[in-house]
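Researcher: I'd like a candidate sequence for this fold, 339 residues long. If you have to choose between options at a position, lean toward the conservative one.
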């Protein structure tokens, strides 16, 4: 077992960097946590629905933290027509991100996936990726709640893939055994991201700890085991998207904490700890650097980070933001980073 691990800077293909003062804290912490290239989510307030807004956001992020390489996404909604998708592609935007109405932070746009068919067809032609937050909205009458909302969404994933077989689709933050088995039957144009926290947590965690609460929620031990098995297997269609999603401490307090888990500042040592515990440390470089790049068609990740097998303490808070497992120890330490 190696005691040192040297990797390219991580490709974290799903992050929430926030805006304004919060982004000024979060973007530098994302770099120090070991990421080099990030796919930035568009669920700001207001949501990023125009190419101009996405480019202005990227410029703001570059001014805050110029060392990160920002890959951008735009909200997929029924108003996005073919010419807007072409303009997005021409501007270098990589991903159209779809959120079901109201399921998570700032997901206030409305519009079913089938109402976004024109944009999906254009994305298929332009080589853009459609990225899905795959949850059906809560519906007590249909028996849909947080624990089965992902499973209830899966027929929509299958239908989208069947309608647009050449469209690259990413099923973001897969959390369930049902999702893994559905993906196994789909073609190579469909991939999925997996977060570190869904490899670690179950529903027991978020029921008692708001800093372990996110959407989609962590599910049963059997679901977690399915995620662990697929990352250990080396399946090329699964790669890192941390879904690091910080909220101010006040938003995480109270009866209805905001959904989102903050892992960006500890990402590399957290992943090393998890993969080491699972006995698949050898899979970490492919999971966190090469597979995502291959699916996105990106050049190899740049830079170098070095991890040592020696304990590091997760801070209790960082500038008032509370990371996952605050105050606990990880088995790995992120060493001095090279550019
Ligand atoms: O838990 C989550 N938090 N899930 C999401 O999909 C969005 C994110 C956020 O932006 O806070
Ligand atoms: Zn997210």
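Model: Candidate sequence:
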């Amino acid at each position: 077992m190696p005691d040192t691990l040297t990797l390219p800077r991580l490709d974290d293909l799903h992050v929430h960097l926030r805006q304004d003062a919060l982004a000024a804290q979060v973007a530098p912490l994302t770099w120090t946590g070991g990421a080099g290239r990030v796919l930035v989510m568009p669920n700001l307030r207001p949501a990023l629905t125009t190419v101009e807004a996405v480019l202005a956001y990227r410029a703001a992020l570059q001014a805050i933290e110029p060392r990160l390489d920002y890959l951008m996404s735009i909200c997929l909604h029924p108003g996005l027509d073919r010419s807007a998708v072409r303009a997005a592609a021409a501007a270098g935007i990589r991903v159209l991100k779809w959120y079901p109405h109201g399921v998570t932070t700032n997901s206030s746009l409305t519009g079913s996936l089938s109402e976004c068919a024109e944009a999906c067809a254009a994305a298929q032609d332009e080589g853009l990726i459609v990225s899905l937050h795959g949850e059906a909205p809560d519906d007590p009458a249909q028996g849909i709640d947080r624990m089965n909302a992902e499973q209830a969404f899966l027929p929509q994933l299958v239908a989208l893939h069947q309608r647009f077989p050449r469209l690259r689709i990413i099923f973001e933050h897969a959390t369930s055994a049902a999702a893994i088995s559905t993906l196994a039957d789909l073609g190579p144009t469909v991939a999925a991201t997996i977060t570190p926290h869904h490899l670690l947590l179950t529903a027991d965690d978020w029921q008692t700890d708001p800093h372990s609460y996110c959407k989609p929620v962590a599910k049963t031990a059997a679901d977690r085991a399915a995620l662990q098995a697929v990352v250990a297997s080396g399946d090329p269609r699964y790669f890192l998207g941390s879904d690091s999603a910080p909220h101010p401490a006040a938003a995480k307090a109270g009866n209805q904490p905001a959904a989102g888990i903050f892992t960006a500042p500890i990402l590399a040592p957290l992943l090393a700890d998890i993969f080491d515990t699972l006995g698949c440390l050898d899979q970490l470089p492919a999971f966190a650097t090469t597979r995502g790049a291959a699916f996105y068609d990106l050049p190899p990740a740049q830079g170098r980070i070095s991890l040592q097998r020696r304990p590091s303490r997760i801070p209790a808070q960082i500038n008032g933001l509370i990371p996952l497992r605050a105050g606990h120890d990880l088995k790995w330490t992120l060493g001095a980073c090279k550019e």
